[in-house]
Sequence to fold (230 residues):
Amino acid sequence: MFLPLHDTVPLRRMKAPYVTRLIVALNVAVYVLLQSGLVLDLGPGFVMGFGLIPRVLVGDGYLDGIPHVATALTPFTSLFLHGGWLHLGANMLFMWIFGDNVEDAMGHARFLVFYLLCGALSGLAYALSTPLSESPLIEASGAVSAVIGAYLVLHPRVHIFGLIFNIIPLTLRAQWAIGAWILYQFGHAVLDADRSTAWVAHLGGVAVGAALVVVFKAREVPLFGRQDEN
Fold:
């Protein structure tokens, strides 16, 4: 597993990635204030009410006696929930490293729509793959995976510094670091009997992000690292 810590891509079209920072801040705030127990701990009812439950979204399930948001909104509300500090930290680190350059390629408003849409589509992919599941999907991982997929299409040859196996410092090209990460997700999706992690949502996010970056990027922004050669 490769843990990214820094990349070499400068911002070219904006002063600061305000939407990326806002998304990170909202995710941290929701977890700290409502889930961690440091301020409030609303318990499993909060997760059930605002997470994406496949059987409720695409099947015949329903929530009885639990305060909840409208089912159609759960693909979006689930993007701001996490299962623990490690889960939150990993997602927000990936978002911090890759989100700024994707936002730079799209602009603030388009990036926000891209993030929410891709997150919702990745959640829907998970729900359709496990329509009988009653376990809530609570993670930004699908949307963050879409950002990673977009980054791969935009900057495949730039260098990323990080830790391989979370220990050994190493610099790799994005195409190798992210490619290995995608293979890791695919391997778990196929072989891992433990469905507590939504591997399909991660893969769905990467695929939709890589596809939709072509639509959402600014017209003058080239693909496949051509701007990184200048």
About this structure: The chain has a mean pLDDT of 90. The longest helix spans residues 85-106. The CA atoms of residues 33 and 219 lie 40 Å apart.
